[in-house]
Design a protein that fits this description.
With 300 residues, the chain is α/β, with parallel strands linked by helices. The chain has 2 domains: 121 residues, D-Maltodextrin-Binding Protein, domain 2; 96 residues, 3-Layer(aba) Sandwich (D-Maltodextrin-Binding Protein, domain 2). The chain has a 6-stranded mixed β-sheet with strand order 2-1-3-10-4-11. β1, α2 and β2 form a beta-alpha-beta unit. The protein is globular and about 55 Å long.
Amino acid sequence: MKKHISMMMAAMMAATVLAGCGASGGAAPTDAPTAAPTEAATTAAETEAETTAAETEATTEAAQAAGEETEILVAAAASLKNAYEEELIPMFQGKYPGVTVKGTYDSSGKLQTQIEEGLEADVFMSAATKQMTALDEEGMIASDTITNLLENKIVLIVPTGSDSKLAKFEDIENAESIALGDPASVPAGQYAEEALTNLGIWDKIQDKVSLGTNVTEVLNQVAAASADAGIVYATDAASMADKVEVVAEAPEGSLAKKVIYPVAVVKNTAHEEQAKNFVEFLKTDEAMKVFEAYGFTKGE
């Protein structure tokens, strides 16, 4: 009897152990599937995030490469405004649709001062080499980009229909009122002073002269007949051919050097690639044809 009871107790204990093992073995498969999907989902999310970031970076780089949302500022002599605004800037923007070009125009001397004082211009084009050389010597111009792009002429003008008796450049001393650019900052005025000094006329006309802050002011004074005569660039006279008449060019030998317009990229520009593209564009045959249509000739 005792033996039978012992066998029954042993059987019950074995059953209990087997039941425990069965329960334990069943729990393991329950936990495994739960952990696996969580890890997979995390990996997928990370991969997607990395892909999105890479795509965004690629899109940004492509946009930057295409010049999207880029604006450059060109500081140019007042005598260039018409050619720039009417034709050259639209032409350039057509070739580089992501780049907007803004122009600021004044006497080269004033623009030089503004750049020295912090004007964030990307390109500078002056009406004389003096201002470009000064900025270059101050380390404010990318020297390897300087190009003597254009040549202009200095001319004596009178209002259209004027009954003045002026027939040659030297006759300016016979005018009752004379408009000139201020030699202190206006290259056209500097050229006028040089030519008239070499011709022995400068000191004789001082009581008749009114000085303009840029060559456009001089042109407008003569066009409005508020001055009997003035000295401007040939290109300025051509832009108002219906309002002013050219009497003569500055005589040969009255100027030591030709009237050269240099252009260059401003050093430390934030848009170096776009600025260089603009300068290179100005050197193309199609741009030169525009300049020639406005009275300029190719520089040396």
